[in-house]
Amino acid sequence: MFDKLTQKISDAFRFVSGKSSITEKNIDDAVEAIKMALLEADVNLRVVRRFVNATIEEAKGEKVLRSVDPGQQFIKIVHDKMVSFLGDARQDLVLKGPDTISAILMLGLQGSGKTTSSAKMALRLKKEGRKPLLIACDLVRPAAVEQLSVLAHQIDVPVYKEEGATDSVKVYKGALDWARKNLIDTLIIDTTGRLQIDEPMMQELSRLKEVSNPDELLLVADAMTGQSAVDIAKAFDEKIGLTGVVLTKFDSDTRGGAALSLKTITGKPLKFVGVGEKPEDFEPFHPDRIAGRILG
Ligand code: GDP
Questions:
Q1: Looking at the predicted structure, is the pLDDT value of residue 124 above 90?
Q2: Is 110 in the pocket of ligand 1 (CB under 6 A)?
Q3: Given this model, what pLDDT does residue 86 score?
Q4: In a mutational test of the pocket of ligand 1, which residue from 188, 248, 254, 272 has the highest number of ligand atoms less than 8 Å from its CB?
Q5: Is 113 annotated as contributing to ligand binding?
Q6: b/e for 111-128, b at 16 or more Cβ within 10 A?
Q7: Which ranges constitute the DSSP H helices of 87-198?
Q8: What is the pLDDT of residue 98?
């Protein structure tokens, strides 16, 4: 998935690895090559600059230049910086205990993978012992309700839908009633998406947020769209407020830009990644593991 980036960064490390001593020029060359690799991977320019400056500052310290294995020290610095840019520690969902109903609002543009990710989330929570309910509140995309029902059936999780509904808040209220009667502990709300951000969508989502008082507001964004995934996250955060991001299509050649820029630009953690079309293709996002994968 990060093949090209990994290759370019390992090329950059050649300027410093295997040497008993390295110079500031070696460090500059390695950092310049890493900078080019990150830009090519569609990482946000501001993020690249911060990454480069932080790496140079630390790498030019005495500890690296005088170390017995300076190349290794340099690689460790790059690794640690990358973990920090990816968000440091794993950020899990923050939900209430099973005696109270929790709600997760799944937000995102049409085609981002919102409906699929809602089902993936439901399957994951079910495996953790929770009792999730999928709620079909995407009333704009014609096939969304049916698609959610098919997925729910596949993973054997209940789905709440209202035929011919036009008001997602009304659907949500019906779902909450149903959930109370059926001992559901987690609501996963698949919301309306559009091709681009517009006011009616944001207003509808704000109303849904108000009535559902969600524990998690997750933006589902397509990693293939690179920096625009980050811009979309920023816009949703400003208008609705997010608690985290799910980056989908991580299995395709994403180049890595969105994952590396997201936390720094939006301040919101990446919580999960979608790694395929099936309900099982969903992984928690671990910054250290991803940094390890990028650095090869
Ligand atoms: P929505 O409009 O946001 O609800 O998007 P969908 O859930 O319908 O997803 C759009 C398309 O992306 C579908 O064909 C999904 O199968 C596909 N998709 C969703 N998540 C992933 C993923 O993580 N990897 C891949 N390869 N495809 C995905």
A1: yes
A2: yes
A3: 94
A4: 248
A5: yes
A6: ebbbbbbbbbbbbbbeee
A7: 114-127, 144-155, 168-181
A8: 83
Is 127 marked within a binding site? no
d(CA 155, CA 126): 9
The residues, any chain, with a CB within 8 Å of residue 98's CB and separated by 6 or more, are: 129, 130, 131, 185
Among candidates 200, 207, 257, 208, which has minimal Cα distance to 233? 257
pLDDT tens sequence across 19-28: 888 899 999 9
Contacts of 143 (CB under 8 A, 6+ apart): none
What's the Rg (C-alpha) of the chain? 22
Q: pLDDT (tens digit, 9 = 90+) per residue, 6-20?
A: 999 999 999 998 888
**Cα-Cα end-to-end distance for the chain:** 11
Strands (E), 25-168: 102-107, 132-136, 159-160
- Could you tell me if the CB of 193 is within 6 A of ligand 1? yes
Instruction: Spell out the long-range contacts of 140-146 with Cβ–Cβ below 8 A and sequence spacing 24 or more.
Output: 140/110, 140/192, 140/193, 140/194, 140/201, 141/110, 141/115, 141/192, 141/193, 144/115, 144/190
Cβ 279 under 6 angstroms from ligand 1 = no
Q: Name the residue of 123, 147, 148, 277 whose CB sits within 8 Å of the most ligand 1 atoms, as the mutation to test its pocket.
A: 277
Task: Give the C-alpha separation, 272 to 91, whole Å.
Answer: 9
